[in-house]
Amino acid sequence: MTTSPDTAAQLPGEYAEALAAFAEELRVHRNASEHTVRNYLSDVRTLLTFLTDDDGHLPLDAIELGNLRQWLLAQSRSGAAPATTARRIAAVRAFCAFCTRHQLMRSNPALRLASPRKASRLPAVLQQRHVDAVMQHTETEPSEVTARTDPEETGETERSPKDEALRLRDAALLELLYATGARVSEIAALHTTSIDTDRRLVTVMGKGSKERRVPFGLPAQRALRAWLQRGRPVLENDRTARDATALFLGARGGRIDVRQIRSVVHTATAGLPDSPELSPHGLRHSAATHMIENGADLREVQEFLGHASLSSTQIYTHVSLGRLAESYRQAHPRA
Question: Which of 4, 115, 178, 295 would suit a FRET pair with 93, their CA atoms being 20 to 30 Å apart?
Answer without folding.
Answer: 4
